[in-house]
TrEMBL record:
<dbReference type="Pfam" id="PF01132">
    <property type="entry name" value="EFP"/>
</dbReference>
<dbReference type="InterPro" id="IPR013852">
    <property type="entry name" value="Transl_elong_P/YeiP_CS"/>
</dbReference>
<dbReference type="InterPro" id="IPR013185">
    <property type="entry name" value="Transl_elong_KOW-like"/>
</dbReference>
<dbReference type="InterPro" id="IPR012340">
    <property type="entry name" value="NA-bd_OB-fold"/>
</dbReference>
<dbReference type="InterPro" id="IPR020599">
    <property type="entry name" value="Transl_elong_fac_P/YeiP"/>
</dbReference>
<dbReference type="GO" id="GO:0003746">
    <property type="term" value="F:translation elongation factor activity"/>
</dbReference>
<dbReference type="Pfam" id="PF08207">
    <property type="entry name" value="EFP_N"/>
</dbReference>
<dbReference type="InterPro" id="IPR014722">
    <property type="entry name" value="Rib_uL2_dom2"/>
</dbReference>
<keyword id="KW-0648">Protein biosynthesis</keyword>
<keyword id="KW-0251">Elongation factor</keyword>
<feature type="domain" description="Translation elongation factor P/YeiP central">
    <location>
        <begin position="67"/>
        <end position="121"/>
    </location>
</feature>
<dbReference type="Pfam" id="PF09285">
    <property type="entry name" value="Elong-fact-P_C"/>
</dbReference>
<dbReference type="GO" id="GO:0005829">
    <property type="term" value="C:cytosol"/>
</dbReference>
<feature type="domain" description="Elongation factor P C-terminal">
    <location>
        <begin position="129"/>
        <end position="184"/>
    </location>
</feature>
<dbReference type="InterPro" id="IPR008991">
    <property type="entry name" value="Translation_prot_SH3-like_sf"/>
</dbReference>
<protein>
    <submittedName>
        <fullName>Elongation factor P</fullName>
    </submittedName>
</protein>
<dbReference type="InterPro" id="IPR015365">
    <property type="entry name" value="Elong-fact-P_C"/>
</dbReference>
Length: 187
């Protein structure tokens, strides 16, 4: 249990027994009164975002996390199932924790989970993923002017708008934060 007076971005804090992820940290100075630290937090229990203001110099508990490599197997409505790559045991992660990132998990792909005291608190998300287009309509002549887009379905079931030149079987890159097309992977 380490306490800190300067919580950093992309760390985990324990406040009132609950664990929060620090999305952002702002320092606001008030002249002679000292500064305030404004923390933008995400609750790992509920997934809700909140903002907390603490006085500069106040101690907060920083949580030490452990990482473990797992391999994605499959998912249903309530949970995603992974295999621990060292013990080969099945690890269950609730869909509430994964959220929309479920559309970016590919079967057999390895990823990292974060643990605190042996309990999974979060999954390490990649900034972008490469996914194969499984369903796309062909471009229509005359419809390719002025940066036209079309919707395609990807191997995970996710649908995204892409330029007209993308066709079925192409591998594209998708930004996991915004869910938008960022490019086509060259063959």
């Amino acid at each position: 249990m380490a306490f800190t007076v300067q919580p950093r971005k992309n760390t985990y804090l324990r406040i009132d027994g609950k664990i929060f992820y620090v999305n952002d940290r702002l320092l606001k100075t008030q002249g002679r009164q000292g500064g305030l630290i404004i923390l933008k937090l995400k609750s790992l229990d509920t997934g809700n975002n909140s903002e907390v203001t603490i006085k500069s110099g106040s101690k907060v508990e920083e949580v030490e996390t452990e990482t473990k490599e797992v391999q994605y197997l499959y998912s249903d409505e309530s949970a995603a199932y992974f295999m621990d790559t060292t013990t080969f045991e099945t690890v269950t992660v609730s869909m509430k924790m994964i959220g929309d990132y479920k559309y970016f998990l590919k079967e057999g792909e390895r990823t990292l989970v974060l643990l605190v005291d042996g309990v999974i608190i979060d999954i390490r998300r990649k900034a972008s993923v490469e996914l194969t287009v499984v369903q796309a309509t062909d471009a229509v002549k005359g419809n390719t002017a002025n940066n036209a887009l079309k919707e395609v379905a990807l191997e995970t079931g996710y649908k995204v708008n892409v330029p007209m030149f993308v066709k079925e079987g192409d591998v594209i890159t998708v930004n996991t934060d915004t869910g938008e097309y960022t490019g086509r992977v060259s063959n």
